[in-house]
Amino acid sequence: TILVLDFGSQYTHLITRRLRELNVYSEMLPCTQKLADLSWKPKGIILSGGPYSVYSDDAPHVDPAVFDAGVPILGICYGLQELAWHFGKNVLAGEKREYGHADLKIARHGDGEAGGLVDKLFSGVEEDMNVWMSHGDKLSHLPEDWTTIATTSNAPFAGIAHTKKPYYGIQFHPEVTHTKNGTAVLKNFAVDICQARTDWTMGKFVDQEIERIRKLVGPKGQVIGAVSGGVDSTVAAKLMKEAIGDRFHAVLVDNGVLRLNEAKQVKETLTQGLGIKLTVIDASERFLGRLKGVTDDPEKKRKIIGNTFIEVFQETAKKIAEDAQGSDKAGEIEWLLQGTLYPDVIESISFKGPSATIKTHHNVGGLLEGMHLKLIEPLRELFKDEVRELGTNLGIPEDLVWRHPFPGPGIAIRILGEVTPEQVRIAREADFIFIEEIKAAGLYRKISQAFAALMPVKAVGVMGDKRVHDQVIALRAVETTDFMTADWYPFEFEFLKRVSRRIVNEVNGVCRVVYDITSKPPGTIEME
Ligand code: XMP
């Protein structure tokens, strides 16, 4: 195991992620972790980056036992400065801050006395490396027994190494994908220098996580969580089911703006397929009732749906807790499960300061308020592709594991203008046909997200010799890796023709179909 001590950089989780990709197990703990309190001995220690200056009075420092542990240490960014501070107190505020790309030159020392040791970190890596920097402070000079192993034009000590011990410091971030060959550097450290085992797998993650959940929740504790039929909430729910069985209570709120037949399908998959204890609450009327009359304010739709969801969920939670009281599994519900992923965690860190809200995606942020529940987030260290791998590992059907994301406010933000039962019917039927055709054409996995949206305008058409005046469906399909930027999918004309024909023929109330060819930016993925 590699111990990652976290000084609060927004990239720290990426270090554990990269190590996992190398099949090396790592654990991330706060920078103040006392080594004596650990029940295991790390094979190596990584000190992460962080937003502080090591020389300031309130700067965090590691347990000095780290330097007596007799294991290799790698300091990244703040971690490098922490090493330099420990060995010589020689860190200064830099005159120039350095953010973004930098050209790193590796300084090799050859086979000489210390060369064998200090060259190990960059072994096999090209001389010139394009790296990602993000720092303000720098070293004034090297501490005793340290040498330079890499430089940039702005940072003469971009890489340093101890000449007698396997201690290394790098100013750049090897864990971000912007740093080319960053993984090779981490591999040199973890596998070659620390000799960490490379036998970690997702199967092991499952076992560890189940153990962790059992310990956290205790032998009687009960957990409640909302499921949507999406991959994140389903994987989180299945993990809970494996860990604590029927002491996990899943709730599916049918808000009336789910996809066609979705509530029914999710219920079948979760209960029959995965054995999860699920309560389905049909609150369509309450949601649609409140959405009535909201015509041109997408944020208001989001708010109504978010708040109504919280209300319905809380009522349901109360009922479930009351029922559980009388059973032999007494003890009220103390925990709320959330399928938060790592990108959500980063987003909430980087948007801590004032920032313009383009859309309020986290519609249920207020769920915890007034519920006296503690949060349990088993996926918070994982990325989407890892969650999919985990889902497959837990026996969740392929179809669900590869499902496109679906927003909390559902098709309400895909029905431009007022959301009425009739508009919901039209949008649902058109969407169903579009997705069915995408699957039939074998394109579902290539496309990141696709849906049909309903335009609140009428156009003229001619059907069966009769003039009609009906609505317009806009198809949207995008490819993206991070959902922050996206490009529209280049369908073949034959495909679009087929979908258009089917929608106009099969969906009552539609006489035209258009394809949205706007990228993000300037568009967004959803229409509202
Ligand atoms: P946009 O439209 O902002 O969408 O380009 C990016 C991703 O976020 C999803 N999305 C939402 N998800 N609640 C959600 O849970 C929302 O209010 C919401 N709005 C957008 C969208 O589907 C896409 O995957």
TrEMBL record:
| InterPro entries on file | Class_I_gatase-like, GATASE, GMP_synth_C, GMP_synth_GATase, GMP_synthase, GMPS_ATP_PPase_dom, NAD/GMP_synthase, Rossmann-like_a/b/a_fold
Which PANTHER family does the entry link to? GMP SYNTHASE [GLUTAMINE-HYDROLYZING] (PTHR11922:SF2), GMP SYNTHASE-RELATED (PTHR11922)
Q: Any idea where the GMPS ATP-PPase domain is?
A: 200-403
Presence of the UniProt keyword Ligase in the record: yes
Describe its function. Catalyzes the conversion of xanthine monophosphate (XMP) to GMP in the presence of glutamine and ATP through an adenyl-XMP intermediate.
How does the record describe its quaternary structure?
Homodimer.
Pathway(s) served: Purine metabolism; GMP biosynthesis; GMP from XMP (L-Gln route): step 1/1
The residues listed in the UniProt record as binding ATP, with positions renumbered to this chain, are: 228-234
User: GO MF terms on file?
Assistant: ATP binding; GMP synthase activity
Keywords noted in UniProt: ATP-binding, Glutamine amidotransferase, GMP biosynthesis, Ligase, Nucleotide-binding, Purine biosynthesis
Q: Which Gene3D superfamilies match?
A: 3.30.300.10, 3.40.50.880, HUPs
Which reaction does this chain catalyze? XMP + L-glutamine + ATP + H2O = GMP + L-glutamate + AMP + diphosphate + 2 H(+)
CDD domains documented for this protein: GATase1_GMP_Synthase, GMP_synthase_C
- Protein name listed in UniProt: GMP synthase [glutamine-hydrolyzing]
One annotated Gene Ontology cellular component of this protein: cytosol
Cellular localisation: Cytoplasm, Cytosol
Q: Where is this chain primarily localised?
A: cytoplasm
Q: Which residues form a coiled coil?
A: none
E.C. number: 6.3.5.2
Q: Is Phosphoprotein a UniProt keyword of this protein?
A: no
